Amino acid sequence: MKKEGLALAVDLGASGGKLFVGELKDGKAEIHPVHKFKNKIVLAQGRAYWDFLRIFDEIKMGYALAQREFSGQITSIAIDSWCNDYALISEHGTMTVSYTHLTLPTTREE
Prior knowledge:
The chain has one helix at about 50-70; strands spanning about 5-10, 15-25, 30-40, 40-45, 45-50, 75-80, 85-90, 95-100. By secondary structure, the protein is of the alpha+beta class. A hairpin with a 3-residue loop joins strand 1 and strand 2. The longest helix has 18 residues, at about 50-70. The model has no long low-confidence stretch (mean pLDDT about 80).
């Protein structure tokens, strides 16, 4: 049976990330966990940063797992992140400074 409209949801939190596939079946939402990983913080010069390249690799791995498990029927992706972490983007759309992680005391203003 072909599954229509499957969505991949990516939830990025301070301690880790989770990927789920959501589908509507008989008018009801079903959620299927497909991948999870720890968010290992990088400390540099007294500040804490997200390891964005590793996180991106984990998201790609979770996407591939979901596509395999659901026969290539993923039609959309949504990514949610904790709202207080940030990255600086240049006028050309490139990341100028890695994502700063704000949950550790080393990143808070005194």
